[in-house]
Amino acid sequence: MMAGKRRSEMMEETRAKLIASARRAFAEKGYAAASMDELTAEAGLTRGALYHNFGDKRGLLQAVVEQIDAEMASRARMIGNQAENDWEGLLAEGIAYIEMALEPEVQRIVLLDGPAFLGDPSRWPSQNSCLQTTQQKVGDLIAQGVVRPVDGEAAARLLNGAALNAALWVAASDHPQDVLAKAVEAFRALAGGLLAPPA
C-alpha cells in the first residue's frame, strides 16, 4: 500500500515539475521554439518521463494550458464574487477574463499558442467547466427575473464566446490596451441585451 501511494505521489511530482518547467519555457520562448531537451533537463528529468506522462510535447502544452486556464477561471470567479449583485458578478467575470489577455504568460500560452497548436479553445475541457458555471449563473438570473427568459445554455455559450473572442483579439493586437477598452465596452453592451426590461 505504502509503495503504491509513494509511486502515485512521485508521478504527481514528476508531472508538476514538467508542467512548471514547460510553463516557463513556453512563456519565454513560445511553444514552437521551446526545446524538449532543455525543458526536461531543467526539470531534472528525461524525455522518457515527458512521453510517459504527457504522450508528447503537445500533450504537455495541453496540460499547461489547462492549468493556466483553471487559474484564470478561479481568479475571474473571485472577482465576480466581490461584485454587488449576481448580474454585476457575471459581467465582472467576463471582463476579468478579457483583461487577463494583457498578461504575457496568458497571452502567449493560452491565447496565441493554445489555439494555434490545440485547436478551437471553445472545445477545450477547461472551457467546458467554465461554460457550466456560467450556465448556472445565467439560470439563477433568469429565475430572479433579472435576465430575459432565454435558453440558459445559449446565453452562457454566447457570453463565454464573446469574452473568449475578445481576449483572443486583445492578445493578437498590436495595441492591446486600446483594444481592451473597446472590447470591454462592447462586451457590456452585448451582455446588457440579456437584461429583462424593467417591469
UniProtKB/TrEMBL annotation:
Location of the DNA-binding region in this protein: 35-54
Keywords, ordered alphabetically: DNA-binding
Signal peptide stretch: none
Superkingdom of the source species: Bacteria
Residue ranges of every copy of the HTH tetR-type domain listed in the record: 12-72
UniProt feature coiled coil, ranges: none
One Pfam family from the record: TetR_N
Keyword Cell membrane assigned: no
Protein name as annotated: AcrR family transcriptional regulator
